User: Which sequence fits this backbone?
């Protein structure tokens, strides 16, 4: 049996897809012949017996794109009526999604939500037996306790591990708590088992995933608040793992003592991604972010004092409902002072079901676009200036492979998550997955260029 997985959305969705693929790797039922070939992930959708679409709903535009893709799957069902079409993930969990999906794509066979990944085999067996549409978004408890198989990525030197599911923050613009549920931390033992498996398979870098990794362990019975630091210490003890990253951290729960832990652990990357979203206190309050710019600045100062070589990146939302021109100017000034290494910037997009979408003071698209350009102008200046500081310096780069845009160039990342492109010499060995010392020769706004140090 061959299966195809299409993923929309964030790194957590990507890891969920690896779990779905791992489940399908081990799928069996009475229909399959004894001694039949092992199930196989295929990149050719026309060859697939099962097509799984793992969805995202963080923005209306993402959902519109996904609905269009689901509609396009009809041609595969027409060509092969026995192919099973599966839709899962955040959009599937959303209220009213079943009706929207079936209206646009009535050929879909199975829809299930974010709580039900372990049931994928059961759904497929049931559909093969009865050939009737299946829909299940029941909030089944216990996902955080499940030990699920993970399909080994092509990049075997890097792996991802979920450490906490869900989110308790209810930011006014965000749909995640409604489709991912409340926070549920996984046990350190289960996390370490997965990290050790990644190391045993040759993995050198691991990404710890959660909607808010700083909240890890708050739901444990002891109610402690420093469990994430403890987890970083334990993961650092795993032999073979040389780099530890995490995504994402919430400023509201970022305790300064965590910086001391990170500074003391050589394996934990010195890259801090702290979503700011706005540099105006009134807007932050309207967003229900739970911190002020003064508190955020305190964290930045502590990071730069204790780990001066670190990089700091952020997320920004432009044009939140009610954001006045003076509010936006506060944001510009604050971002200018922060001098981030990079910022992932987004136009505010109303998300049905969230508090912000119900507000009547929505901003025109023209104003949002104008403000975005002003923000980018300031941020790009700092991104380039921070990168230029590295010219002439040596950086240890984990080579990820050949550049997608130029096969004569290797590409990789520094400890601080800077992208480095390295021109390749003819006849060189394959450096993929290797840590290589690189001298930085030039700096651009979004990447560095360097040369291998022989």
Assistant:
């Amino acid at each position: 049996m061959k299966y195809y997985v299409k993923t929309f959305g964030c790194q957590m969705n990507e890891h969920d897809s690896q779990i779905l693929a791992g489940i399908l790797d081990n799928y069996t039922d009475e229909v399959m012949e004894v001694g039949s070939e092992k199930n196989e992930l295929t990149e050719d959708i026309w060859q697939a017996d099962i097509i799984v679409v793992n969805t995202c709903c963080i923005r209306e535009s993402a959902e519109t794109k996904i609905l269009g893709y689901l509609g396009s799957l009809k041609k595969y069902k027409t060509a092969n009526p026995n192919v099973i079409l599966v839709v899962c993930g955040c959009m599937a969990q959303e209220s009213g999604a079943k009706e929207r999906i079936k209206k646009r794509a009535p050929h879909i066979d199975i829809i299930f939500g974010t709580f039900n990944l372990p049931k994928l085999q059961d759904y497929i067996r049931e559909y093969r037996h009865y050939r009737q549409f299946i829909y299940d978004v029941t909030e089944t408890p216990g996902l955080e306790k499940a030990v699920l198989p993970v399909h080994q990525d092509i990049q075997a030197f890097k792996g991802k591990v979920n450490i906490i599911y869900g989110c308790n923050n209810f930011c006014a613009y965000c749909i995640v708590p409604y489709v991912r549920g409340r926070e549920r931390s996984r046990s350190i033992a289960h996390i370490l088992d997965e990290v050790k498996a990644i190391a045993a398979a040759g993995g050198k870098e691991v990404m710890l995933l959660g909607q808010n990794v700083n909240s890890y362990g708050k739901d444990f019975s002891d109610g402690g608040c420093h469990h994430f630091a403890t987890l970083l210490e334990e993961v650092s003890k795993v032999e073979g793992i040389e780099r530890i990253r995490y995504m994402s951290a919430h400023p509201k729960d970022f305790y300064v003592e965590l910086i001391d832990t990170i500074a003391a652990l050589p394996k934990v990357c010195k890259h801090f991604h702290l979503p700011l979203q706005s540099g105006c206190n009134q807007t932050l309050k309207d967003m229900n972010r739970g911190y002020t710019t003064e508190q955020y600045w305190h964290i930045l100062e502590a990071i730069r004092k204790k780990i001066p070589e670190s990089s700091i990146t952020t997320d920004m939302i432009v044009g939140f409902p009610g954001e006045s021109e003076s509010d936006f100017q506060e944001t510009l000034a604050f971002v200018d002072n922060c001098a981030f290494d990079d910022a992932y910037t987004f136009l505010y997009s109303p998300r049905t079901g969230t508090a912000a979408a119900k507000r009547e003071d929505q901003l025109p698209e023209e104003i949002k676009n104008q403000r975005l350009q002003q923000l980018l102008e300031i941020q790009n200046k700092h991104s380039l200036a921070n990168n230029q500081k590295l010219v002439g310096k040596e950086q240890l780069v984990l080579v990820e492979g050949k550049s997608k845009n130029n096969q004569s160039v290797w590409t990789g990342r520094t400890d601080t998550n800077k992208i480095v492109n390295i021109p390749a010499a003819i006849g060189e060995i394959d450096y993929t997955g290797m840590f290589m010392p690189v001298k930085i020769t030039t700096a651009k706004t979004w990447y560095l260029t360097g040369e291998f140090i022989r």
